[in-house]
Amino acid sequence: MARRRLRPVLALMGLLTPALLVAGAAAPSYADPGSLYCQTPAPLGQADCTAPEARIYSAKADHGYQDLSRTPETTARDAEFYMSTVTDDPQDDVDGDKDNDEVTFTCQLLRNDTVVSGQAWQECTDPDPSNAYAYARGTIAFTELATGTYTLQVKAKDAATTPLGGDGSNEQATPTELTWTVVQPTTDTTPPQTRLTSAARRWHLFPYVAEEYAGDEPLKTARCRLGSTVRQCDGSQATIMGLSAGDWTFTVAGVDFAGNVDPTPAVNRFTVPVPSSKLRASSGWTKGTQFGYFFNGYSTTKRKGASLSAARAGTRSVVLVATRCPGCGSVKVTYGKKVIRKISLAASARRKRQLIAVGSWATAHRGRFSVVTLSGKPVTIEGLGFSRRR
């Protein structure tokens, strides 16, 4: 009878023996998806078998003037790099790893495909004792680099532990890389040619503007003006706040790394309309402020014959900025007693900041332009644009 009771126990021990042998012997690689620990579900408990991934989000040369990710050839002998973990999940914890494992970075520098002396895999993690960052971050910088082609390699690694208590760290298998070339400086007397890559439209409906530009060679900086006023800018963009109504001219002359200045600056001309709050209003209008309207303001009425008007000397083109909506009424735009255009503001859906051309002329006009309602239906006017250009 005792022998019969031992048989189930021996059978159970036979099933457990392979697992215990695995624990006592050399375990398979923890980060290997084929590992015992990485099976789903893991037979010995839930295991983290996903290695974090590094990204190089900033690569600068020449004290930050040149972006090596855009222009990977430079005469600068110094370079600095910033990296972080890659995550698509905003709910990840502070280090970008879903399993709450500390993430660190190691970096290596190669020159012409050979590891640079003293620059083999080394720690390049930024300390973050207060967990202030949204994800793990790292930094590394190099100085006095000789000419040649360089590759920075970065690997991320977390501090996960296996269910068996072994070394379960997950390290990125294939490093993240960025390659750039340091070249010998030459005597450069040729100025760059600057072009606008993103600029304000002809009629600009914002109190600020972001002008982006580039050169036919890398730009160290640029010289920017709005009208006759010098504006701060760098080698790729100028952000200008506080625009008022009127015609504006933006110019930018790129400066290359040899100090040559573009003698023929790129030019962008645009016009900001007059907001409704600055127009002369007859009785019957209600003025309001709300985000989403032109300059965050509007004038609305249901009174037939109500008018908004303004005069600008030298006017050669006019536009209306208004809201279109189901049930909206119609308006006419006049110059003096002459009707220039009648406009229906009815639409299938409500849309703010709608730009509507009124007219343009070869000769300048200096009289008063008016927007007059044609019915008792609701009308919302946001602005009226005047330009000395057609």
Shape: elongated
Radius of gyration: 33 Å
Counted beta strands: 28
Give the end-to-end Cα distance, rounded to a whole number of Å: 109 Å
The secondary-structure element order is HEEEEEEEEEEEEEEEEEEEEEEEEEEEE
- Strand content bin: 35-45%
How many structural domains can be distinguished in the coordinates? 3
**Integer average pLDDT:** 85
Structural class: mainly beta
Low-pLDDT runs of 5+ residues are 1-31, 88-99
User: Tell me about the biggest sheet?
Assistant: 6 strands, mixed
CATH superfamily of the largest domain: Immunoglobulins
CATH C-level name of the largest domain: Mainly Beta
Query: What's the CATH topology label of the largest domain?
Result: Immunoglobulin-like
Helix content: under 10%
Number of helices: 1
What is the CATH architecture annotation of the largest domain?
A: Sandwich
List the helices and strands and how they pair.
Layout: H1 2-24, E1 54-61, E2 66-67, E3 73-74, E4 79-85, E5 103-111, E6 114-115, E7 122-123, E8 137-142, E9 148-158, E10 176-182, E11 194-198, E12 209-215, E13 219-226, E14 229-231, E15 237-240, E16 246-256, E17 266-272, E18 274-275, E19 280-281, E20 286-289, E21 297-301, E22 307-311, E23 315-324, E24 330-335, E25 338-344, E26 351-365, E27 368-373, E28 379-387
Parallel strand pairs: 3-10
Antiparallel strand pairs: 1-2, 1-4, 4-8, 5-6, 5-7, 5-9, 9-10, 11-12, 12-15, 13-14, 13-16, 16-17, 18-28, 19-22, 20-21, 21-28, 22-27, 23-26, 23-28, 24-25, 24-27
